[in-house]
């Protein structure tokens, strides 16, 4: 059994480990909310109107000359595939509700995903690996310009882009960076930092969206304010906060190394042991161990594991992916077994399995 | 996942408590059914604080939390959006607009809400779509031409006034085309 082929087709561009500060900032995401004049927002809309919106947006983008876009109507996508799109962060869980008349248009490299009939008629999303706020924004902005050229946007002189939720009114821009902050978490500094960030008009969330805990010490930092600030200003403010967090995290890592090196090494190597040899690997434990191993690689304590494999496993450990690979529905316990099997295989410890079977 | 009490299909995301002759019933609705439903008010104890609760607490929930001072019927519905039928009270309950026209319907009341949500800001200063820039430019040009036309009439230069009238007419058609969508239909 080799998962290489599956991984190759399943890992989106942003999951590859690259870009500035890629050791701490895992990915950058830009989202623009847009709506069309003359149509009710999806919350109040009916299927016929939703279909018209879908057709207008699809025609506008697919005729834009840029090739490689793929259109998928959510009601026609199998349940498991929808779950995988969510786990890859390419669509929101809300969009996958078949009653929503939702659709998604993906660019070939999955950098751009355009959701149709989510909370707003159009949500342009651009995900880049590492810390690339400007690049990701410029890309999303260029798609926005293409659409704007062909579609009548709902826009107001005073309020800007008109969105269904008043928390998006204005620029409709939500910029987020996904950050791995294990040292700030271990030293509990994160508990003081989160309220401070909130006061600066930013939001901190766990990596799997609203309300989720910070699984594997991964935090998503986004702007909260979309009105009264220009796009450049929103990006600059978020960038400043992220840079300060990066500096804090690096300093905490140095302190940990100098003051409690053995304890730290012990913790990280134990986690490596677990993901290499465990036979049952629940989601929470897998996420915690991956975070430790990632920190170990960043600190040059763990040397024989490639970071890109770790990134893949972070995505791959999720239920939808596991079941997709297993080609069948799995119970929670079966998933934990399957997850452990795949981790061992991916981390290439086959010789241990051989020894096991010889015993 | 909790399923909506009404459609039994979508995920419930809004909890409403309904009081009828002293009996309180709780309804779990999805956003869409909440939008379409009539006569409800929010359960203030619902956690975590979502946008609809935030709005309801700040702007609409005060009365509903003080039932002895004011009855539920006493809360005014406010203006109603002609396009989607959303009342201002319902907007505060669900925390979402139903269509672009809601913005002009509730225009006077929005700065207060935006100020709370956006750190004191109430006006957009970011990107403007090119088509709207064009729209503003055409509107301004029409105003200018009308002023010139009035001057021409006052000075009894009627031939000039007629030319200006034709120009204004063409621009008005162009404006209509802009408002109709995109800048594609070039009238000139």
TrEMBL record, chain A:
- Identify the EC number(s): 2.7.14.1
> Where does the Phosphagen kinase C-terminal domain lie?
24-252
User: Where can the motif RDXXRA motif of the pArg binding pocket involved in allosteric regulation be found?
Assistant: 335-340
**Enzyme class, UniProt record, top EC level:** transferase
| Pfam families recorded | ATP-gua_Ptrans
Q: How is its activity regulated?
A: Appears to be allosterically activated by the binding of pArg-containing polypeptides to the pArg-binding pocket localized in the C-terminal domain of McsB.
Respond yes or no to whether keyword Acyltransferase is given for this record: no
Q: What Gene3D superfamilies does this protein map onto?
A: Glutamine synthetase/guanido kinase, catalytic domain
Which positions in this protein are listed as binding ATP?
A: 27-31, 89, 123, 174-178, 205-210
Q: Per its UniProt record, what InterPro entries does this chain match?
A: Arg_Kinase (IPR023660), ATP-guanido_PTrfase (IPR000749), ATP-guanido_PTrfase_cat (IPR022414), Gln_synth/guanido_kin_cat_dom (IPR014746)
Keyword Transferase set for record: yes
Q: Name one GO molecular function term.
A: protein arginine kinase activity
Which CDD domains does the record cross-reference, listed alphabetically? Answer: bacterial_phosphagen_kinase
| Keyword list, A-Z | Allosteric enzyme, ATP-binding, Kinase, Nucleotide-binding, Transferase
- Organism superkingdom: Bacteria
Under catalytic activity, the entry for this protein gives: L-arginyl-[protein] + ATP = N(omega)-phospho-L-arginyl-[protein] + ADP + H(+)
User: Function, please?
Assistant: Catalyzes the specific phosphorylation of arginine residues in proteins.
Please name the NCBIfam families in this protein's record. PRK01059.1-4
Give the PANTHER family listed for this entry. Answer: ARGININE KINASE 1-RELATED, ARGININE OR CREATINE KINASE
Instruction: State the family it belongs to.
Output: Belongs to the ATP:guanido phosphotransferase family.
Q: What is the designated name of this protein? A: Protein-arginine kinase
Instruction: Tell me what organism the protein belongs to.
Output: Sporosarcina oncorhynchi
What are the leading ranks of the lineage? Bacteria, Bacillati, Bacillota, Bacilli, Bacillales
TrEMBL record, chain B:
Output the SUPFAM superfamilies linked to this UniProt entry: C-terminal UvrC-binding domain of UvrB
Q: Which PROSITE patterns match?
A: UVR (PS50151)
Ranges of residues in domain UVR:
139-174
- Identify the domain of life: Bacteria
One short Pfam name that applies is UVR
| PANTHER family in alphabetical order | PROTEIN-ARGININE KINASE ACTIVATOR PROTEIN (PTHR38430:SF1)
Q: What is this protein called?
A: UvrB/UvrC motif-containing protein
Organism, scientific name:
Sporosarcina oncorhynchi
């Amino acid at each position: 059994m080799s998962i290489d082929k599956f991984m190759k087709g399943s890992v989106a561009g942003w999951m590859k480990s690259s870009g500035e500060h890629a050791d701490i900032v895992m990915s950058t995401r830009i989202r623009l909310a847009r709506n069309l004049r003359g149509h009710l927002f999806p919350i109040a809309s009916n299927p016929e109107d939703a279909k018209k919106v879908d057709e207008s947006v699809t025609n506008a983008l697919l005729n834009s000359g840029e090739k490689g876009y793929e259109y998928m109507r959510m009601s026609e996508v199998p349940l498991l595939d929808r779950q995988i799109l969510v786990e890859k962060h390419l669509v929101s869980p809300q969009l996958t509700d078949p009653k929503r008349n939702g659709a998604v248009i993906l660019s070939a490299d999955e950098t751009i995903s355009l959701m149709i009939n989510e909370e707003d008629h159009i949500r342009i999303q651009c995900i880049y690996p590492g810390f690339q706020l400007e690049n990701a924004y410029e890309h999303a902005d260029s798609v926005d310009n293409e659409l704007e050229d062909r579609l009548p946007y709902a826009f107001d002189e005073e309020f800007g882009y008109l969105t269904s939720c008043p928390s998006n009114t204005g620029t409709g821009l939500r910029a987020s960076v996904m950050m791995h902050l294990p040292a700030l978490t271990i030293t509990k500094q994160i508990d003081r930092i989160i309220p401070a960030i909130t006061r600066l008009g930013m939001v901190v969330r766990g990596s799997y969206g609203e309300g989720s805990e910070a699984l594997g010490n991964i935090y998503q930092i986004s702007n909260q304010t979309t009105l009264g600030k220009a796009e450049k200003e929103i990006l600059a403010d978020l960038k400043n906060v992220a840079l300060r967090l990066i500096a804090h995290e690096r300093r905490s890592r140095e302190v940990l190394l100098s003051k409690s090196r053995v304890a730290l090494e012990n913790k990280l190597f134990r986690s490596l042991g677990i993901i290499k040899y465990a036979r049952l690997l629940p989601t929470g434990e897998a996420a915690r161990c991956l975070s430790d191993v990632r920190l170990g690689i960043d600190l040059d304590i763990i040397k024989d594991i490639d970071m890109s494999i770790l990134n893949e496993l972070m995505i791959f450990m999720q239920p939808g992916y596991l079941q997709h690979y297993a080609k069948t529905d799995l119970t929670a316990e079966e998933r934990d077994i399957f997850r452990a099997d795949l981790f061992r295989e991916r981390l290439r410890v086959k010789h241990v399995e051989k020894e096991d079977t010889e015993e | 996942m909790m399923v909506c009490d009404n459609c039994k299909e979508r995920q419930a995301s809004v909890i409403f408590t309904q009081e009828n002759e002293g009996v309180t019933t709780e309804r779990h609705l999805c956003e869409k059914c909440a939008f379409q439903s009539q006569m409800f008010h929010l359960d203030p104890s619902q956690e975590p604080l979502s946008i609809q609760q935030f709005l309801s607490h700040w702007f609409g929930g005060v009365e509903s939390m003080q039932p002895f001072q004011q009855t539920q019927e006493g809360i005014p519905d406010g203006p109603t959006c002609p396009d989607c039928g959303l009342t201002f009270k319902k907007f505060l309950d669900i925390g979402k607009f139903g269509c672009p026209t809601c913005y002009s319907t509730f225009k006077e009341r929005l700065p207060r809400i935006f100020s709370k949500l956006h750190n004191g800001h109430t006006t957009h200063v970011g990107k403007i779509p090119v088509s709207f820039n064009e729209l503003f430019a055409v509107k301004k040009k029409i105003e200018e031409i009308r002023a010139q036309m009035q001057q021409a009439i006052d000075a009894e230069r009627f031939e000039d006034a007629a030319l200006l009238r034709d120009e204004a007419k063409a621009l008005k058609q162009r404006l209509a085309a802009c408002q109709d969508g995109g800048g594609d239909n070039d009238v000139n």
